[in-house]
């Protein structure tokens, strides 16, 4: 029987990064993957394909709407959807091959098949042919990720009623797309298909979009999305989809019940969240505890209730984000190798990759109010930022929340082009416990959109220059 220091189940960003870090630290490592390709949700049906389509569809829209005003004369862009899907697939393949290369480079064995934990130190791997082999491991890391949350009574066929996976591979642009859930997936993939020509209506249970993000940012974001053509039905739920006709008949009613109406759609995207995935891992029999939401319970060092078994990523508590999974992968590998692994959950950025982008790190105003923390707000709009003005991309603003007594930055929220890239200077500042004054006194290159962050920091001290 093959013996390893560490066996990682799952090769998403949590699992493969964990395996690499452990191998760097001298451990003999294997990964177990049931899918045909490595990389998990993120590389195959998540972050990467969605960003490829967001990029391509954004340029498609720009070519149709923004080129002329810059003096670039092109004929109306024509959509070649199979070619765009091929562009997406090439991106997936490139990244998946990259992970395969990294496994080889770090001498990590890839065990193809479904992993099951038989007890401390023992993993069974069952291949597609049904043949099972067992391996021994001093430590086991569960990095099995998450799956799409289902909407009761609505069957996802991935053709007309789709999850994000089907929405990344539609073979034609739907005339009418109804998105259930105004979360990150709904708004990103809704944006892709709206830009390509779909009429998009988003049905959201709550009375706001993007729950958890800063309320003021989200209000402006919703207005911008509406200007782009999104329609929102907030405080509403989908109670059924009749698939018997040529068009889907989507039953919608108020979240609290009542006010029923039927909307017509070509495609319905169900994007109401994701749930931890533990099917077939044998956790109950092995004695690995789950919480009431089906997540693997871990302590501060990622240890589960079973000795020598750890868990990270989407399958445990915390935001379901690839970079959070990666950082946990590194931390648990370091802990297993006897080092001091650590993740700072107060500084995990979040980005919505729409146009404009929305990004955030740290506390929102709502969080601070609820915690009774006295804070100062510094805001700076892109309409007053020189680079944004010349590029005529002035939607949005930067908002900095600093502790009223100490000036320490507690949260930064940005809506605007490239917000997803800009957020990281705030993350670094916060990781070092920096203040708004530190940010305001840091020289920023001119002309950049990042100068808006400096100006927002100056605004905390009521001394912005360009406003
Ligand atoms: P996963 O990536 O889900 O990987 C788990 C792996 O484990 C899978 O390969 C699975 O096959 C394997 N596995 C499970 N059980 C077994 C078993 N028993 N045996 C063998 N293998 C097993 N996050 C971001 O940060 N940024 C984004 O832009 C972003 N975009 C997204 C877009 C979409 C459409 C979706 C759906 C998600 C997106 N996410 C994004 C979320 C991100 O994909 C996840 O947070 C991330 O993939 C979690 O990593 P993970 O390693 O925990 O699990
Ligand atoms: P989400 O949790 O972001 O949003 C789900 C939305 O659906 C919420 O607004 C919720 O109130 C709503 N909802 C729930 N039940 C509903 C119902 N019955 N009817 C109507 N609305 C309902 O989940 P989403 O968008 O599915 O994404 C899943 C995960 O993937 C998220 O945790 C996210 O972190 C991750 N992801 C991250 C991305 C990024 O970082 N850019 C991109 C895409 C996904």
UniProtKB/TrEMBL annotation:
The active site is at 446 (proton acceptor). NAD(+) binds at residues 181-188, 204, 273. Keywords: Disulfide bond, FAD, Flavoprotein, NAD, Nucleotide-binding, Oxidoreductase, Pyruvate, Redox-active center. Its EC number is 1.8.1.4. One of its GO terms (biological process) is 2-oxoglutarate metabolic process. One of its GO terms (cellular component) is transferase complex. It catalyses: N(6)-[(R)-dihydrolipoyl]-L-lysyl-[protein] + NAD(+) = N(6)-[(R)-lipoyl]-L-lysyl-[protein] + NADH + H(+). Its cofactor is FAD. Disulfide bonds join 42-47. Binds 1 FAD per subunit. The active site is a redox-active disulfide bond. Belongs to the class-I pyridine nucleotide-disulfide oxidoreductase family. This is Dihydrolipoyl dehydrogenase. It comes from Rhodopseudomonas palustris (strain ATCC BAA-98 / CGA009). The gene is dldH.
């Amino acid at each position: 029987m093959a013996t390893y220091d560490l066996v990682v189940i799952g090769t998403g960003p949590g699992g493969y990064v964990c395996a690499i870090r452990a191998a760097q630290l001298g451990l003999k490592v294997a990964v177990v993957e049931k899918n045909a390709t490595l990389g998990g949700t993120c590389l195959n049906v998540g972050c990467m394909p969605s960003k490829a389509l967001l990029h391509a569809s954004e340029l498609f829209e720009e070519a149709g709407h923004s080129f002329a005003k810059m003096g670039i004369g092109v004929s109306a862009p024509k959509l070649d959807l199979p070619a765009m899907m091929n562009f997406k697939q090439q991106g997936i393949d490139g990244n998946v091959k990259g992970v395969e290369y990294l496994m080889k480079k770090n001498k990590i064995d890839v065990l193809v098949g479904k992993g099951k934990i038989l007890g401390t130190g023992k993993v069974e791997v069952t291949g597609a042919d049904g043949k099972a082999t067992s391996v021994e491991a001093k430590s086991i890391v569960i990095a099995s990720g998450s799956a799409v949350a289902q909407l009761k009574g609505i069957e996802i066929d991935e053709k007309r009623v789709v999850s994000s996976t089907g929405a990344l591979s539609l073979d034609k642009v739907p005339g009418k797309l109804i998105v259930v859930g105004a979360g990150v997936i709904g708004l990103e993939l809704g944006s892709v298909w709206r830009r390509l020509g779909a009429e998009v209506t988003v049905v959201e249970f709550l009375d706001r979009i993007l729950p958890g993000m800063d309320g003021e940012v989200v209000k402006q974001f919703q207005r911008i999305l509406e200007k782009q053509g999104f329609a929102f039905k907030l405080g509403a739920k989908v109670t059924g989809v009749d698939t018997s006709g040529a068009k889907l008949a989507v039953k919608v009613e108020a979240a609290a019940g009542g006010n029923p109406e039927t909307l017509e759609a070509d495609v319905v995207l169900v994007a109401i969240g994701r749930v931890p995935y533990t099917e077939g891992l044998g956790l109950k029999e092995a004695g690995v505890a789950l919480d009431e939401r089906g997540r693997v319970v871990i302590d501060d060092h990622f240890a589960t209730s079973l000795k020598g078994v750890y868990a990270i990523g989407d399958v445990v508590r915390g935001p379901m984000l690839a970079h959070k999974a990666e950082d946990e992968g590194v931390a648990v590998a370091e802990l297993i190798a006897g080092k001091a692994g650590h993740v700072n959950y107060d500084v995990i950025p979040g980005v919505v990759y729409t146009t404009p982008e929305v990004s955030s790190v740290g506390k929102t105003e709502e969080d601070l109010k609820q915690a009774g923390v006295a804070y100062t707000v510094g805001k700076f709009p892109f309409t007053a930022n020189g680079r944004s003005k010349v590029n005529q991309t002035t939607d949005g603003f930067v908002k900095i929340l600093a502790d009223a007594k100490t000036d320490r930055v507690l949260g930064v929220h940005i809506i605007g082009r490239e917000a997803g890239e800009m957020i990281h200077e705030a993350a670094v500042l916060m990781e070092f416990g920096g203040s708004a004054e530190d940010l305001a006194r840091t020289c920023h290159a001119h002309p950049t959109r990042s100068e808006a962050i400096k100006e927002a920091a100056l605004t905390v001290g009521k001394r912005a220059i360009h406003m």
